[in-house]
């Protein structure tokens, strides 16, 4: 082994060592806030005020979660959130992919004009008040479908999926046409199955956005408790705890009748429990989509 090869080998070892240390430090910085929140959520509320909780609860307690779930509205809100997330994700994927396939066909004469119109929606928005009057004019106020219909098509998702479709060999489409397949059958049997990686990526985007949304509930459905979403209920509970003092007899937003179930909770501890409750469903779903995430996003974002 000559000197140049030895130096190269030493350089590789140094790079690998520093890269490993950097990635470990990044992982710790990224995971610590979440793990700390989990520890606080399972810790006794009064003990949390003392501070000094890091990765493990000092006095284990489930009272914070009992306080969150004590109200019966949380369960209905959870069902509404799941329903809107599932419907929004499924319909958005199907309709956006269908639009993307249409705009990827070179024989479609209006594809450039429609693409420009869709892209413009990413840069210009009418604003909150015009949107409110539009929803009101469509009869969607205090209606469950106000959660679904405005999210049926996404300009950004359309561009990503269309770019991915353009990377699919045209010979597959031509072969299907020779066999007598029409556009819809080609879309269902050929294009849609081949878009699995990018669809998994888009599904994660849409699902997270739908699950975390609470402002539309506040604007359009706040007068109907049966249409309240989990995020909106947790936001109200979080707002209540933010205004509460550290009185151990007070589970903010729950009321005196819930004190026996809520136990001794404080705004800090119940806030941590709310955060975990809101994040857990997405954390459970993400591992199933992770293997498709990078492939779908990278292939769907670059067209050579």
Largest sheet: none
How many domains in all?
Answer: 1
Helical proportion, percent range: 55-70%
CATH architecture: Orthogonal Bundle
Q: Report the sheet-strand fraction.
A: under 5%
Uncertain ranges: 245-262, 300-304
The general outline is flat
State Rg: 25 Å
List the helices and strands in order: HHHHHHHHHHHHHH
Number of strands: 0
Mean pLDDT, all residues: 81
Q: Helix- and strand-based class?
A: mainly alpha
| CATH fold-level assignment | MetI-like fold
Using the coordinates above, name the CATH class.
Mainly Alpha
At the fourth level of CATH, the homologous superfamily is MetI-like
Question: Cα distance, first to last residue?
Answer: 41 Å
What count of helical segments does DSSP give? 14
Subcellular location: Cell membrane
Membrane topology: Multi-pass membrane protein
Protein name: Carbohydrate ABC transporter permease
Family: Belongs to the binding-protein-dependent transport system permease family.
Which helices and strands occur, and which strands form pairs?
Layout: H1 3-41, H2 45-49, H3 63-69, H4 73-104, H5 111-120, H6 128-137, H7 155-166, H8 170-178, H9 183-194, H10 196-212, H11 215-220, H12 230-242, H13 259-262, H14 267-299
Molecular structure report:
There is one protein chain. The chain is mainly α and 304 residues long. The protein has one domain (63-304): Orthogonal Bundle (MetI-like fold), CATH 1.10.3720.10. Helix content is 69%, strand content 0%. The protein contains 14 helices and no strands. The chain has helices at 3-41, 45-49, 63-69, 73-104, 111-120, 128-137, 155-166, 170-178, 183-194, 196-212, 215-220, 230-242, 259-262, 267-299. Helix 8 (170-178) packs antiparallel against helix 9 and helix 12 (230-242) crosses helix 14 (267-299). The longest helix has 39 residues, at 3-41. It is flat and about 70 Å long. Residues 245-262 and 300-304 have low confidence and may be disordered. Belongs to the binding-protein-dependent transport system permease family. It is found in: Cell membrane. InterPro entries: MetI-like (IPR000515), MetI-like_sf (IPR035906). It is a multi-pass membrane protein. Keywords: Cell membrane, Membrane, Transmembrane, Transmembrane helix, Transport.
């Amino acid at each position: 082994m000559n000197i140049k090869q030895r130096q190269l080998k030493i350089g590789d070892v140094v790079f690998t060592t520093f890269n490993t240390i950097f990635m470990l430090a990044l992982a710790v910085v990224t995971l610590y806030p979440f793990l700390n929140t989990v520890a606080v959520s399972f810790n006794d509320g009064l003990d949390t005020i003392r501070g000094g909780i890091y990765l493990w609860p000092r006095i284990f307690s489930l009272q914070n979660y009992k306080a969150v779930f004590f109200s019966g509205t949380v369960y209905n809100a959870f069902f509404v959130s799941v329903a809107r997330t599932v419907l929004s994700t499924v319909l958005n994927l199907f309709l956006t992919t269908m639009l993307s396939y249409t705009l990827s066909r070179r024989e479609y004469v209006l594809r450039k004009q429609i693409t420009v119109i869709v892209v413009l929606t990413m840069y210009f928005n009418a604003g909150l008040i015009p949107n409110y009057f539009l929803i009101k004019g469509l009869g969607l106020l205090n209606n469950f479908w106000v959660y679904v219909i405005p999210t049926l098509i996404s300009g950004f998702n359309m561009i990503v999926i269309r770019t991915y479709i353009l990377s699919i060999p045209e010979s597959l489409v031509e072969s299907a046409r020779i066999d007598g397949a029409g556009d819809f059958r080609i879309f269902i049997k050929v294009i849609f199955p081949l878009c699995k990686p990018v669809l998994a990526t888009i599904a994660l985007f849409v699902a997270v956005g739908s699950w975390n949304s609470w402002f539309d509930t506040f604007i359009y459905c706040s007068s109907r408790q049966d249409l309240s979403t989990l995020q909106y209920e947790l936001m109200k509970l979080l707002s209540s705890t933010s205004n509460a003092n550290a009185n151990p007899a007070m589970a903010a937003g729950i009321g005196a009748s819930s004190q026996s179930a809520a136990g001794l909770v404080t705004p800090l501890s119940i806030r941590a429990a709310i955060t975990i409750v809101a994040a857990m469903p997405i954390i459970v779903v993400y591992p199933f989509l992770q293997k498709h995430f990078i492939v779908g996003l990278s292939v769907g974002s670059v067209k050579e």
